[in-house]
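Narrative summary of target 7.
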Amino acid sequence: MNFKALKQYFLFTKQQQIGIFMLFLIMIGLQLFYFLSDFTISGKQSPEKEKWLALQPEIDQEKLVDKDGKPANNLFNPNFISDYKGYKLGMSVEEIDRLMAFRKENKYVNSAEEFQRVTRISDSLFNKISPLFKFPDWKQNKNNYSAKKSDFATKSFPKKEKLAILDINEATQEVLMKIYGIGEGLSSRILRQKEMLGSFVSMEQMKEIWGLSPEVINELKVYFKVVVPANLKKINVNEASLKELAQFSYFKYGLAKQIVTYRSMNGNFNNIEDLAKIKDFPVEKAKIISLYLEF
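Modeled conformation, tokenized:
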């Protein structure tokens, strides 16, 4: 092999030699950075993320279905079957609608047999899903519960005393705790939500409060209503700053920024329908949100 012919390819000027040397130094530095750096993610999580992670076991359990598509072996109260849950259990649309119509009358099925009578599901489906039903303990043990109910009510939740229908915006913690199922923690959470919003404008907002079950929300609707105060401070969408919009509970910073940008490019908003055109606007809550805004 003619090595002299190859030699010309390895002849470099002084500047080229310095450049090659610096390139090697950079490569070595990057390698050292990679091996010596700690790329592990911090274990610290935001409260919002921790709240959703607490739900993960329930979500995972919902996903556990076997190869035949049979429902996972987790117990549930059949009174609160959703359309999706009923479909997963093998119920037809008509059977689900019968249950929904029954529940709209504020009635509850108290046994597996009554569930079959109301929905008219087949015996085969009944035998398949009835072992998964779980009714409240007081439904299963009425005799024992009747003796315990009065003691429990007087100690923690004296629901049996007659409560007039009150404005939930005027309710104190003591009054809220008279509702069966609401203790010190949930009552404090309700009051904090009201303080953050300034006032509730709809009882539907109870669904947004973490920890309130559908049964407890129904109880609240029996004893409370919403009276929107005349002095409720509203946000003027066309004049509010980015900071003011971002501090509104139903808006995040990203949405507030889009609102300000859209407003500057297209002019003022005339109504909630104009505002709902913004990307990521929570359209399902538009009716409630509109009561906190002015245009």
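Strands lie at 166-167, 224-225, 235-236, 293-294.
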